[in-house]
Every structure is written in structure tokens, then in C-alpha cells.
Design a protein that fits this description.
The complex is a heterodimer.
Chain A (H helix, E strand, L loop, with lengths): L4 E3 L2 E4 L5 E6 L6 E7 L6 E7 L2 E4 L8 E4 L6 E5 L8 E8 L7 E2 L3 E5 L1
Parallel strand pairs in A: 2-11
Antiparallel strand pairs in A: 1-3, 3-8, 4-5, 4-9, 5-6, 7-8, 9-10, 9-11
Chain B lengths: L3 E4 L2 E5 L4 E7 L6 E6 L6 E6 L5 E4 L2 E5 L5 E6 L8 E8 L7 E3 L3 E6 L1
Parallel strand pairs in B: 2-11
Antiparallel strand pairs in B: 1-3, 3-8, 4-5, 4-9, 6-7, 7-8, 9-10, 9-11
The chains are: A mainly beta, B mainly beta.
């Protein structure tokens, strides 16, 4: 069974630039999550999708972050414009509907200069 | 909101020594999950505990869920260098969305 795919794996940008991350969850997983993990901390949930609908985006900085999952499969997370404090690893995870266990992708390490 | 705290933040042990990390939630949890993240890697699911007082074992790893379902522990017997990584506990929130709140993790270093 293929795991959660993410790209790119690494991204370096300057502040005020835009960046987008892509995630492809495990086949059949209805729930998709985007997390931000700052060095030395646990993952912090940014947004949760159930199929193509948003379940929770209470911790998403909506003035600069946006995410979509148009067809209920792949998802993109965008930051526009980026700030220095956005430097982190962005993890995508998915889970089978109704099951709590989450499967994480390899993450995208973002460095904002 | 729900808070999940872990101690210690860092632990260095000599190979062969035991290791324990503790997790405490500000709210009662329906279940608790443990994940392991290797250096440079992503969190990988280890186990889920559901019942009050539940104890589960995976080879040298022993997981325990407290009676009040607000705390948990992970104990590793006779650590090996392959145990290196950060161990996170995570608990679902009370809402229907059941999003996980992760602890800050315990970073384990095993010295050969």
C-alpha cells in the first residue's frame, strides 16, 4: 500500500514570496490533515478535511494560509506571503473515515529567509 | 483548549538502560496514541490505547493508559540505538472532528 505522498520535500524562499505544497493521501482515506511542525515541537494541526469539505481550520492563519481539496483526494496548502516564522516542516496526514490513527507523509521542509 | 504535555523533553541514556516518557492531558481522553519520529523523518504511528488502565506491549515497548484516562506512559526496556527518535503522545479532541492534539515530544538519544 502506497503511503502519503508530499512534494516538494524541501523549499527555500524569501519572505513575502509565495509557496505551495502538495499532498496525495493514502487511497481510500477520506480525512486529510495539514500540520505545521516547528523544530523541537509536536505537530500543530492547521486544517482538517473530510472528503472535500473543511472540518476544522481554527488554527489556520487565514490571512496568509489557504488550503483546498477540490476533488476529495489531493490537497494543496499555500502560503502567501510567507514570513520568517513560517519556517517549519509541513506535514500532511490521512486517516480512514472514523478512525483516529493518522498516517503521515514525509513532509516539506520550508525555510523562509 | 485541550493541552497535552510530555516529560521529559530530552533524555539521554546508555544503550541497554531503560527509558520512560510521560504524557498528561488537561482533559479526559477517549483514547491516546503514540507516535515515533526518527531524526529527519515523519511521525509514525506506534499504538492506540482506549480502555482505562490499559497496558499494551510491543516487544521492548510497554504502553500504559491511566485509570482516569488523562495520562499515559511509554517505557522502553533495554534501549537500543534503533530506539533513537522523538516520541509523541496525541489525544483526540472532544468534538466530533476528533482532531489530534500532540504533545511536545520526548527526544531520546541512545549512547552506544
Amino acid at each position: 500500500e502506497a503511503g502519503v505522498a508530499q512534494s516538494p520535500r524541501y523549499k527555500i524562499i524569501e519572505k513575502r514570496q509565495s509557496v505551495a505544497f502538495w499532498c496525495n493521501p493514502i487511497s481510500g482515506h477520506a480525512t486529510l490533515y495539514w500540520y505545521q511542525q516547528i523544530l523541537g515541537q509536536g505537530p500543530k494541526l492547521l486544517i482538517q478535511f473530510q472528503n472535500n469539505g473543511v472540518v476544522d481550520d481554527s488554527q489556520l492563519p487565514k490571512d496568509r494560509f489557504s488550503a483546498e481539496r477540490l476533488k476529495g483526494v489531493d490537497s494543496t496548502l499555500k502560503i502567501q506571503p510567507a514570513k520568517l516564522e513560517d519556517s517549519a516542516v509541513y506535514l500532511c496526514a490521512s486517516s480512514f473515515q472514523g478512525i483516529d490513527t493518522q498516517y503521515f507523509g514525509p513532509g516539506t521542509r520550508l525555510t523562509v529567509l | 483548549g485541550q493541552q497535552v504535555m510530555q516529560i521529559p523533553q530530552y533524555q539521554h541514556v546508555q544503550e541497554g538502560e531503560d527509558f520512560t516518557t510521560y504524557c498528561n492531558s488537561s482533559t479526559t481522553l477517549s483514547n491516546i496514541q503514540w507516535y515515533k519520529q526518527r531524526p529527519g523523518g515523519h511521525p509514525v504511528f506506534l499504538i492506540q490505547l482506549v480502555k482505562s488502565g490499559e497496558v499494551k506491549k510491543q516487544k521492548r515497548l510497554t504502553f500504559q493508559f491511566g485509570e482516569a484516562k488523562k495520562n499515559s506512559s511509554l517505557h522502553i526496556t533495554a534501549t537500543q540505538t534503533t530506539d533513537v527518535g522523538t516520541y509523541f503522545c496525541a489525544g483526540p479532541g472532544p468534538g466530533s472532528a476528533r482532531q489530534l492534539t500532540f504533545g511536545s515530544g520526548t527526544q531520546l538519544t541512545v549512547l552506544p
